[in-house]
Design goal:
The structure is a single chain. The chain is an alpha+beta fold. 29% of the residues lie in helices and 26% in strands. The protein contains six helices and twelve strands. It has helices spanning 16-27, 39-50, 78-91, 130-138, 192-203, 209-212, and strands spanning 2-8, 58-60, 68-74, 95-98, 103-104, 115-119, 125-126, 146-151, 156-161, 172-177, 184-189, 216-217. A seven-stranded antiparallel beta sheet has the order 7-6-8-9-10-11-12, covered by helices on one side. A five-stranded antiparallel beta sheet has the order 2-3-1-4-5, sandwiched between helices. A hairpin with a 5-residue loop joins strand 6 (115-119) and strand 7 (125-126).
């Protein structure tokens, strides 16, 4: 099983749906879907300096291109290599698309995600859907003990799980912060649904979670 990533240049920010459509057209053999850009081979060279062809990270050695890179990584090294690819793509002004989860990160230069989902174990997810949030809540555990959903203005909500988050096994620590440390609050719940609702309501611009729980300030 492999983990596939595609990297190319876009002059303007695009959506995951547009990225998926462009890749489908490219796979079908349509010409001119991706335009050549010198940043693509430059990134390819930098990536191979770190992960040379023939090493165990590749399920198939990547081919050079000046338009689009198809990178197929062995599943056991997906986290390490995926993070490196995203970082290099950002450094070279390219976008990186992961078709398995329809994740576009980074996007074209100038794009600022309205929300970013961060976890203890896994790549950051820009502009996550409610479904993606619920999936990531389901993956919380002893080794992956928190999820943070941060808005572009710095306000955030957070879900922690178990002792690593300062609560009992099987319980969730819920937090929200509105700007300054003095506006940072916490509560706890055993209910996974409530953990999910905190993040999805914040994503939707609602603040009903404030009235549904008893919160205590952290300062």
């Amino acid at each position: 099983m492999s983990f596939d990533l595609f990297v190319w240049h876009e002059p303007e920010p695009i959506t995951p749906a547009i990225a998926e459509t462009k890749l489908r057209r490219w796979h079908e053999g349509e010409s001119g879907v991706f335009r050549a850009n010198p940043a693509v081979p430059a990134m390819f060279a930098a990536l191979l300096d770190r992960f040379p062809p023939g090493t165990e990270v590749w399920s198939g050695d990547p081919s050079p291109s000046d338009t689009v890179l198809h990178l197929s990584v062995v599943w056991s090294r997906a986290g390490e290599v995926g993070a490196a690819v995203v970082a290099l793509a950002r450094e070279h002004g390219l976008i990186c698309y992961e078709p398995q989860t329809h994740l576009l990160n980074p996007n074209a230069a100038g794009h600022v995600a309205a929300f970013t989902l961060t976890s203890a174990d896994g790549p950051d997810v820009p502009d996550p859907t409610s479904k993606r949030i619920d999936e990531r809540i389901g993956h919380l555990g002893l080794d992956n003990h928190f999820l943070v959903l941060e808005r572009s203005d710095g306000w955030f909500v957070q879900v922690g799980y178990g002792p690593a988050a300062g609560t009992e096994p099987g319980r969730y620590a819920l937090e929200y912060r509105e700007g300054t440390p003095k506006e940072h609050y916490r509560t706890e719940t055993p209910d996974r649904t409530e953990a999910t609702r905190l993040l999805t309501e914040f994503l939707a611009g609602a603040d009903t979670y404030k009235r549904r729980h008893t919160w205590r300030p952290l300062l």
